[in-house]
Write a structure and sequence with these properties.
The structure holds two protein chains of two kinds. Chain A is α/β, with parallel strands linked by helices. In chain A, about 45% of the residues lie in helices and about 20% in strands. Chain A is built from seven helices and seven strands, in the order βαβββαααβαβααβ. Chain A has a five-stranded mixed sheet with strand order 2-1-5-6-7, with helices on both faces. By secondary structure, chain B is mainly α. In chain B, about 65% of the residues lie in helices and about 0% in strands. Chain B contains 37 helices and no strands. In chain B, helix 28 runs parallel beside helix 30 and helix 35 packs parallel to helix 37. Classes of the chains: A alpha/beta, B mainly alpha. Chain A: Its EC number is 3.1.3.16.
Chain lengths: ~200, ~850
């Protein structure tokens, strides 16, 4: 299938490390124009004990985080997959980015958790809609672990493909895309019952 | 030189030389040297270049160039490929315009000037495009320009700009809930009525909602800072209060939609909640209005649009609830919905405001919590794990029809308002024309008795061609394809109020034009003989002429067909009438036409007697059939259309007499037609008597209820003969006596009132009329009817007193048993 590279996608999770970055990778490899962000107050990664997470400000390069974890316990972080994750991330972009401070605009924003969906929606409300541009925010609830991030990434790609195809069709036949998005989402949800979906048309 | 090079050179030179010359010379060159597709590609490159370097100067120039290319074409492209290219260019133009407006490297002052310079183009695109995607983008662009333009108007008092802005604003707002610009559904019904179309055209609806929020924010002054400096009582904008009043009315439209919309239109509900959040944040004085409205928004009360898709409904509901929760959270977190205690504020007004604010805080906190719990439960249970029947929420039939009725009424009102505005424009247009002609009607009317050609418009138009350019096809009807009915209605309304003499003059001009054209049309018989000769001379060519329509071997110019009105296009092949400007050309043309003279458009022979009789009988039957129509509103419907519901509402069927009644108004026409509307000589087939025969037959059937009609008819006959100085009253006498002859044998004593009324209201009574009563008076069973009538006439109709005396004396001689009855009158009144 031909993928619409003019569409601007964005993936969002809490720390812009696991779920959003896995989806970022999948969409980018499929040829889409994609960015990724986190909506949390900081980047939080599991630490050596449950009460001592690793916390970094957004903007800390993945490479620096990788090296920090490597210095703490290479075995431990290799065993739980964090080092592999960070290695993947540093090949995709420099550092985790915070949603609230980004100034880019997108056609579709995929959030990976309802909390992130709410944060994106509320942030757009707060921005005030000064740009008069439309954006479709879609949440796909993905559990925050390595395996589910991969499942979620594939599911997001599938949805991105469906949306991309329909956008193209709509443009060619002068049908407003917003008329059919609910149908696309319902079909997708039927095929992915374990990934509860939310949607909101929003404005920049 | 390539186009790209052209553009680049223009842009470079304009930038390097600091010459602000626009690229207005470019488009002509471009269209002459390159196709539109490559032009668009080059424009895209120019935009990229402009965004990379010196954006503030180059981007407006690319926009200017695009605008020139897009709007320099005077005609809308016709071929599919050119339409596509036009559409692509239009999309590019709007996207570029929007990009420019949100570009931070261009100052707001510059943006205002650019927005003003391109406003007309934006106006044209929004009001004329049929492409919903372009419409959506253009509205969002207008939304972006709105505060800039409003600020510009406030500073420059540009009245024309504000007037156009207002027009465009009203245009968008009037269509915001409809499926415009998709315009029609499959069944041809104009959009916005059918409940199933409520979730159609969502992109345009969302863009309109965003635009409305922008208008609200722009027109309501900020309570904290004066973002828009509009002095009160601005010469163009008016008072700030008026602007705010309009903004609040628009805000109410949004809030009422949440409350009143019966169907689950999730995307639009969410869109509205989002823009309400913008308004809430930007204009805190709207808080109470917005929050009160939202509290009345009942998500559970919305019905399914797609009745078969329960999952879609369930998802939609979940999404709206989530957005509602987010709205509440947004308000609470950002202190827009505050939890102030009443004691912390001072003054009565603050107390009221704070109290409601606290109420809102509690309510919205609770709503947010509840919706969060519902969402979590749904998620925990599984999004697809639900009982379908528990979620089906189909709108009841009576509710659907109630809403549909209301919408149809609203739609009708909208159409009427639109047409009324257009009528006002038409009136202004006419007045303007009259004024420009120095108030001399003769200069705007075309009184010529000769038509410039033989088209219907030339024959019937009474305006100069310069003064009849108003586009009447703009009139709307409830149903697509019925636009001509408005024109029929206009014509019928005009006919009902026109001055009779003026109308007769107008008809005379039209008649003269017809006569003139008919005189110019060659006599068919002459044509035939001419053609016979011609045929003999040109035998060799005939076959080819017959087969092909015109002679390919001939060196003469092929025949020109008569210019026909579109409605006659089907008949064009039958009516191959030639232009008659030059005899020679005409002769050649005749060779090529269908020679059956019955097919000529105009035939000069008068109708023969039998045809006339057949026609008059048909007319009578048609008029008589009207009495059987039972439709309300006194509609007059032709017999042929009575079974067709569509035609019942045709304006042609709505033409009526004042106080028209189906039961008897048709007889008014027949009576008038018989007495003075048709010739009544032998050559004309005694049309009048044919009508009278029908009236007579009709009145004698069930005569109990028709005495009024009888009196009306005979009065008409008498009156016409009296004004035409036909004092013999032959027709009146003939038909009144015939009526009495037909009626009297069937009268009984219980017909006393009927008969007395008839005899007393007949306009003229002669001895012949009274003599017709002899039969009744001599009949022992009915003579009381006769004598009561005579007594009444003697008492109340003195002019006939003499002949009644004569009559009484004569029957007394005839039958002595009537002495008592006769003498009771004779002795008392004579």
């Amino acid at each position: 299938m031909t993928r619409n590279t003019d569409l601007k996608f964005c993936t969002v999770c809490a720390s812009n490390n696991n779920r959003s970055m896995e989806s970022h990778k999948v969409l980018q490899e499929a040829g889409y124009n994609v960015s990724s962000y986190g909506t949390g107050s900081a980047v939080r990664l599991p630490g050596l004990s449950i009460d001592k997470p690793n916390v970094y400000p957004f903007g800390t390069p993945y490479n620096d985080i990788y090296n920090d974890l490597l210095s703490q316990s290479p075995e431990r972080y290799k065993a739980n997959g964090l080092l592999q994750m960070l290695d993947r991330n540093r090949k995709l972009k420099k550092a985790p980015e915070k949603w609230q401070t980004n100034t880019k605009t997108f056609d579709f924003v995929f959030t990976c958790e309802e909390r992130c969906f709410d944060a994106v929606c509320e942030d757009l409300m707060l921005r005030g809609g000064h740009l008069n541009q439309m954006v479709h925010i879609i949440n796909i609830d993905i559990k925050d672990d390595n395996e589910n991030a991969k499942i979620g990434g594939k599911a997001i790609l599938k949805l991105a493909d469906m949306l991309s195809e329909k956008v193209q069709e709509c443009e060619e036949s002068f049908i407003p895309f917003e008329d059919i998005i609910m149908d696309i989402l319902a079909i997708w949800q039927q095929d992915h019952p374990k990934l509860p979906l939310l949607y909101s048309p929003g404005f920049y | 030189m390539s186009i790209h090079a052209n553009i680049k050179q223009e842009l470079d030179s304009s930038v390097t030389s600091d010459d602000s010359k626009p690229l207005s010379n470019y488009p002509e060159n471009a269209t002459n040297t390159a196709d539109d597709k490559s032009t668009l590609e080059n424009l895209i490159q120019a935009r990229t270049l402009a965004l990379e370097q010196n954006t503030a100067e180059m981007l407006p120039k690319v926009l200017e160039t695009t605008s020139n290319l897009l709007f320099q074409k005077t005609e809308f492209p016709q071929t599919p490929s050119s339409k596509n290219e036009y559409s692509s260019l239009a999309h590019f133009y709007i996207d570029l315009f929007h990009t420019l407006l949100i570009n931070s490297r261009i100052s707001n002052i510059e943006k205002s000037l650019i927005a003003s310079a391109h406003f007309h183009e934006l106006f044209t695109l929004i009001t004329t495009t049929g492409d919903p995607i372009l419409y959506k983008s253009a509205i969002l662009t207008y939304s972006q320009t709105y505060p800039l333009l409003l600020d510009l108007v406030a500073k420059t008092s540009n009245e024309k700009l504000w007037s156009d802005m207002t027009k465009l604003k009203r245009f968008i707002i009037s269509n915001w809930k409809s499926i415009y610009p998709l315009s029609t559904c499959e069944n041809g019904i104009i959009s916005g009525v059918d409940l199933d179309s409520d979730d159609k055209n969502m992109g345009c609806k969302l863009a309109s909602v965003k635009f409305m929020s922008q208008v609200i924010i722009s027109q309501i002054s900020s309570s904290s800072s004066s973002s828009l400096a509009i002095p009160d009582n601005h010469p163009v904008l008016g008072s700030q209060r008026r602007l705010e009043k309009e903004a609040k009315a628009i805000l109410d439209l949004l809030l009422n939609y949440l409350i009143d919309e019966p169907m689950m239109v999730s995307s639009l509900f969410i869109g509205i909640l989002n823009v309400l959040a913008f308004i809430l944040k930007a204009r805190s004085q709207t808080t109470v209005r917005i929050l009160s409205g939202i509290l009345k928004f009942n998500v559970d009360g919305k019905y399914m649009i797609d009745e078969k898709n329960v999952l879609k409904y369930r998802l939609s509901k979940r999404m709206v609830e989530r957005c509602y929760k987010n709205f509440a959270q947004f308000g609470i977190k950002n202190q827009l919905i505050k939890n102030d205690s009443p004691s912390s504020s001072s003054g009565a007004e603050s107390n009221t405001s704070t109290t409601s604010s606290s109420n809102f805080y509690g309510k919205f906190s609770k709503i947010s919590q509840t919706l969060h719990i519902i969402g979590e439960e749904t998620k925990a249970k599984g999004i697809l794990n639900y009982e379908e029947t528990a979620f089906i929420n189909i709108i009841p039939d009576n509710e659907r029809s109630r809403i549909m009725n209301n919408r149809e009424k609203f739609q009708l009102k909208k159409t009427i308002d639109f047409n009324n505005n257009l009528l006002t424009d038409l009136k202004n247009y006419s007045l303007e024309k009259l004024e420009s002609s120095g108030n001399d009607p003769n200069r705007i009317f075309n009184n010529s008795t000769i038509a410039i050609d033989n088209s219907y418009s030339s024959i019937f138009s009474l305006m100069n061609s310069d003064n009849s350019k108003f586009d009447l096809s703009q009139f709307k009807t409830e149903q697509k394809g019925k636009e001509s009915e408005i024109l029929i209605q206009l014509a019928s309304e005009a006919l009902s109020s026109v001055d009779t003499n003026r109308f007769i003059n107008a008809l005379s001009i039209v008649a003269s034009r017809y006569t003139d054209l008919m005189n110019k049309t060659p006599n068919p018989k002459e044509k035939r003989s001419h053609d016979d000769t011609d045929n003999n001379n040109n035998n060799n060519n005939n076959k080819e002429i017959e087969e092909d329509g015109y002679d390919f071997n001939s060196s003469e110019i092929p025949t020109k067909k008569l210019k026909m009105e579109p409605s006659q296009e089907d008949d064009v092949n039958k009516y191959k009438v030639e232009e008659d400007e030059e005899d020679e050309e005409e002769e050649e043309a005749i060779k090529t036409t269908d020679l059956d003279d019955t097919k000529y458009l105009f035939k000069l022979e008068p109708m023969d007697r039998d045809t006339k009789i057949a026609n008059i009988k048909r007319i009578i039957q048609n008029i008589l059939s009207v009495k059987d129509q039972r439709e309300e509103n006194s509609l007059m419907i032709s017999a042929n259309n009575s079974n067709n519901n569509q035609d019942i509402f045709s304006p042609l069927n709505k033409i009526k007499l004042i106080d028209w009644k189906n039961e008897n108004s048709g007889f008014d026409i027949l009576i008038r037609l018989a007495s003075r509307g048709v010739d009544n000589n032998e050559n004309s087939g005694l049309c009048g008597d044919i009508i009278r025969d029908n009236l007579y037959e009709y009145m004698l059937q069930d005569f109990d209820n028709k005495v009024g009609l009888m009196v009306e008819w005979l009065n008409e006959e008498w009156y016409f003969e009296s004004i035409s100085k036909s004092f013999e009253f032959a027709t009146y006498n003939k038909w009144s006596l015939r009526l009495l002859d037909g009626l009297i044998p069937f009268l009984e004593n219980n017909h006393r009132r009927l008969f007395i009324r008839l005899m007393s209201e007949l306009p003229k009574l002669t001895m012949d009329h009274i003599n017709k009563m002899r039969q009744i008076c001599m009949d022992p069973a009915r003579n009381s009817l006769g004598f009561q009538t005579l007594k009444f006439l003697v008492m109340f109709r003195p002019p006939v007193k003499g002949i009644i005396k004569e009559f009484l004396e004569s029957i007394l001689k005839e039958d002595a048993t009537l002495e008592k009855q006769c003498n009771s009158i004779l002795s008392k009144f004579y």
